[in-house]
Design brief:
The structure holds two protein chains of two kinds. Chain A is of the alpha+beta class. Chain A contains twelve helices and 23 strands. Chain B has 45 helices and 16 strands. In chain B, strands 1, 11, 12, 13, 14, 15 and 16 form a seven-stranded antiparallel sheet that branches. A five-stranded antiparallel sheet of chain B has the order 2-3-4-8-6. A four-stranded antiparallel sheet of chain B has the order 7-5-9-10, with no helix packed on it. Chain B is elongated, with a radius of gyration of 42 Å. The chains are: A alpha+beta, B alpha+beta. At the A-B interface, helix 1, strand 2, strand 4, helix 6 and helix 8 of A face helix 3, helix 5, helix 8, helix 10 and helix 12 of B.
Amino acid sequence: MRKSKDRLRNESPNQNPRGVTDPGASGPDQSLPRPFAGAGGGCSAEGGAAKARGASGTWCEPDRPGRIKLLQNRVLLGRQSVSSTCTPLGSTMIHSLFLINSSGDIFLEKHWKSVVSRSVCDYFFEAQERATEAENVPPVIPTPHHYLLNVYRHKIFFVAVIQTEVPPLFVIEFLHRVVDTFQDYFGVCSEVVIKDNVVVVYEVLEEMLDNGFPLATESNILKELIKPPTILRTVVNTITGSTNVGDQLPTGQLSVVPWRRTGVKYTNNEAYFDVIEEIDAIIDKSGSTITAEIQGVIDACVKLTGMPDLTLSFMNPRLLDDVSFHPCVRFKRWESERILSFIPPDGNFRLLSYHVSAQNLVAIPVYVKHNISFRDSSSLGRFEITVGPKQTMGKTVEGVMVTSQMPKGVLNMSLTPSQGMHTFDPVTKLLSWDVGKINPQKLPSLKGTMSLQAGTSKPDENPTINLQFKIQQLAISGLKVNRLDMYGEKYKPFKGIKYMTKAGKFQVRT
Amino acid sequence: MSASSLGYNEQGGEAATEQGQEATPTTAPSVPAAFGLFSSDTKKNEDLKQMLESNKDSAKLDAMKRIVGMIAKGKNASELFPAVVKNVASKNIEIKKLVYVYLMRYAEEQQDLALLSISTFQRALKDPNQLIRASALRVLSSIRVPIIVPIMMLAIKEASADLSPYVRKNAAHAIQKLYSLDPEQKEMLIEVIEKLLKDKSTLVAGSVVMAFEEVCPDRIDLIHKNYRKLCNLLVDVEEWGQVVIIHMLTRYARTQFVSPWKEDGVLEEDNEKDFYESDEEQKEKDQKVKKPYAMDPDHRLLIRNTKPLLQSRNAAVVMAVAQLYWHLAPKSEAGIVSKSLVRLLRSNREVQYIVLQNIATMSIQRKGMFEPYLKSFYVRSTDPTMIKTSKLEILTNLANEANISTLLREFQTYVKSQDKQFAAATIQAIGRCATNISEVTDTCLNGLVCLLSNRDEIVVAESVVVIKKLLQTQPAHHGEIIKHMAKLLDTITVPVARASILWLIGEYCERVPKIAPDVLRKMAKSFTNEDDLVKLQILNLGAKLYLTNSKQTKLLTQYILNLGKYDQSYDIRDRTRFIRQLIVPNEKSGALSKYAKKIFLAQKPAPLLESPFKDRDRFQLGTLSHTLNTKAIGYLELSNWPEVAPDPSVRNVEVIELGKEWSVALGKAKKEKPTEKFYSDSEEEESASTTDTESESTSESEKEKNGKEEGSSMENSESSSEELSDSESESKEGSAKKKFKTTEESDSDDTEKKTKMISKKRESSGSSDSESSSTEESSSDSESESDSESDAESRKHKNAIASKVSSPIFVPMKTHELLHRMSGKGLAAHYHFSRQPCIYGNQMVSVQVTLTNTTDQKLENIHVGERKLPAGMKMHVFNPIEFLEPEESITVSMGIDFCDSTQTASFQLCTKEDHFNVNIQPPVGELLLPVTMSEKDFKTEQGMLTGMNETSTTITVAPQNSTRLVLLEKVVKAANLGVVPSGQDNIHRFSAKTVHSGSLMLVTVELKEGSTAQLIINTEKTVIGSILLRELKPVLSQG
């Protein structure tokens, strides 16, 4: 909307000094430059203005017009400008990283070169305020002297400060990798955990980037350089005074298999593969499928001694329409034989993600019968949904969860489920119903009434129903692993394969 | 402490600290909260200082951890600098690391003190541990202190020649740091970059290209020689490096190759899609008619080698390849990227956002690319708004006659969305579809009119705006719609919508003659309360009505003009004044008022409803500038295709023989050598790491075996590798000049010099391989060479007097058939003896096998299967070949230890399906390695090998063979012998040693009168000696 308003404003005659032209004429629409239009809507107008001033003017660091923080900023400016003027342009991809929690506190900062003042984050806060919801914050925010690229995960904003042109995906992908690494190291990635392990975090970040350029991002390598904290190690370290920091270059760093550390030893050698497929679908009012596709991944947990060389073959590899591999997979082998041949990393990793295209017919394992109606006259609405199994290949559908964002006009709902629990939050208007397992003999249903705000007209759209479910031991695309062979090592590993189908973004329009 | 001691809190605190320190060094003293922030801070720091000065590592570590915590929170810890910097030489690696972290943060602020730490790093730069060397370089180059620039420069130079690729990688990073610290160093740094660009390690490639992009992106000439290497390495480079290299190569390719788009350019131009289309291109097209376009093989190489990367798990890599295809590939091929881009849409919201933006730009120009994936862009109610609008944008771009009906149905759902911003955007999208696809204009218009009765004001307002634009494009009779909209004026409050309605009524006032004045009347009433935007339109409407229908509206208009005259906004006042002058005739009004009607009621061109991504394509896809739609700092323009391609030969590099490449793959098993003398050695290591991951697994096991074999002759293996590297560097440098230099330096007699001069001429005329040219020359050549390497070699031979293995004088081109293509089901194999010392073991004969695929299908997994070798014989097989394309051939090298016998080596040559039994039987002449010795030594040796060790025979020599040159040529062709310089014209001597046992093999040909000759062979290996004798006989007797 902001964008469209912008355009309209540009069109309006009062911005057009010629005056004669009517707003309908095409002139201004095309000719007026719209700085930052569409840059995620972020800072468009003010950002642009600020930029213009910054470029022509005297100050080096941003400030924001009409803000209380203005004065503080000015104070900071004095110091900041020194460091930023004596720095020549360029030469760093990722300059600094700020971690910001949902309440807007910067709880960690790391600089890979000269220090960038925290005040640069004000631009981010501004964008955050404007976006109202966290996920609407534009990932790229321009400021007069820097660009802020951010990702939002685990309720934390990871804000990277960059100075020069860089492929934005490069930075975003790296930030995601940072989050993954933290998760890998600490089990969870949260503000508390990061604060508790700030030293390890710092050491890891130090290894991950050198001068803003990624150095070691494979968690297998990082873990050799800096060992993840465990209770046992902490105890041992305090007693013996040994450290978490490795003093040898991880062998992986130099080898052609950088993802695997050497000298791996296990007493039980095991390799588990989980084939997990997610169905993304949009089902329309009448129950017919608008679009459906299957996204699958094979997650592996490989704990094998030495340097095993694995091959994994499928019964029906042609199903896979588009694939992306972990770097360990030999692409040529896949291209010629459709076999996955690889030396696995140690531990958990995602071997493969694939896509079964929308062109193939996708079996939809559940259906939703719904009857949601608002009446103009009364302040009550009817609500009734039933969930049932459809094409499940004889497997049970479990873990069913129904969520729906009700229209604003709904004040409350009084519903009775035939099974499971349901909640309705009158503030966020979010209805969720934890169904559990579907029993085909006795289909679960949720019935009742909605009370609507009196006086308002009925909402013009029925709510969309989002569905989650799980089906064990079934890959809905029909993909089957044929066999797993191991070469290069003598022992006989224990192998296991699990299939699962889940709902991805599964929506039913009503 | 009580509040009364406030004044002394500083001292008191310290005292407390000391006490606390003695008891438990790690616990911080308890500070009363009343002391306030500042005082407690300094005191904490005091405590930290003491901990840092303690003897215990654990205390130091604790202190450092707390300091790092402070840095992380953004608190100032700079005053601890002196205390921290003392620990830079700590033995504890974790303390050291944390000190490094601290240094990098604060060194810039405390330059003088930071200098104290420099010597530590300088020492560490020489550490045997590569990790320590690397991290020392990292920190040293991160300390932003201008004084140490020369030290940094020196360190970088040294590190760039380091044996460890990891250190070299860090050197590449340091280049950028130094450059940003002191741009004056540019020239020197470019030299280092140039050197590192030649590096063959995949580890270094990405980093050095990054440095190149930072320091000297305009020095495209540095890339030429490395272009092909970079293309080939690309798959094995780590993912971040890939992104950088791909972007750089895209830029490079745009300057070096001609456009591949000409064929379909004609089509594109008609559709006005191609923004690259320009006058220049037109010219090119004219040329094209004369000359068909052929893609440069290097251009093709890049496109081909980047394709597998589309399968990368890293979104940035996929995007980089996509933009490369977009900017470089023929238009027919660019389509393959769309699938991968669509796959990225499953990723995180940030990735989605960027990818969608790029797709939006692409879909404007080439709808076809993404049309099959239309449904992947359908919007879900759970998408964030920015994703929704981007998707909508793409859907609109993709709309055409075929899919518009489905799309409109989809749009209908969106319009009802609870996200009103998005609903409004959808209405705009419908408007765009309506203008672009004339078939559906009416449908869309009707649909939009229905929306006018929507409850939501934003939706209605947006509809009004869009309808206004649509009506303009279709100036048919839409009186009804206008009337309907006029009624809306009572209810709608959104200024833009009101303004739009007013404008419409004004514009088409002749079509609604009754309503228009009435609207004006209403508006006059509410004028003062309207938004500026609306006021302006009221003025407009008034003016238009005044001109068309002055009878009814004259007074009304004048009233409005009066109101406008005193409005607060100067814009409105201006407009009022202007309109009054223009429309109301008075004595002062100029000539213009005559044209007032024409001015106001001119036919206006309909607005083009265009995608906001229309002009994005001026930026390279995938860049930050593209995302922001504004030029980011440091954005490098993508140049237009050159009209004529620059000389492609600049990318040529000397061909390195295949055999070497295969062989070095195995050199990896060797240990890193402590000496830094042999550059070629380190090179081996690098190229070893560049070998395909595919071959990795299998070569691994082979290496082990190889290692075992080598273990048995450990003391020799090293020197053999030296030999290898020497001969390599020779063949690589290849330039005749250098060779001759050494030749001339060697003290040889005049006659020899003469022949050399002759052969020099010959060689320089290009026939370096001609057989007879250089027997003499190379013999002396090898002598001088072996001199240079004598130190390392001398311990090697049993007969150490003077005999050294020299490079072969002549390598026969004769190949032997290993497997006929008929019996090999299309796989043909030939082998020949390269006469090089074998790298797999110095008791082995190296055999080059050329495999050719004569079928029309790929042959896969060619490898050596079961071997049947006589006792004692060993064989080192080549790495399995992943596949062989039809009509392609590949040369691989093997090593076979024949145990100085002519027994056959049998083995199976296997493909994926078949295996064939083949055997290699060596001619006895190939079981030898030439050695050089002086005539004197020869005679001494010969004297020791008499009696049983001597075989001789008298032969007739064909007359044409009796000249010296011809005779030498014949003999060395038959057997791998070295020539011994001889003082007598009629006696020719040759020397060699057997490959396995190293026994000397001395051959003497003494020409007698009457075309007879005496052939004498002295050797311990009498069997071989006699066979050789038998073989040499016909060689000399026949013509």
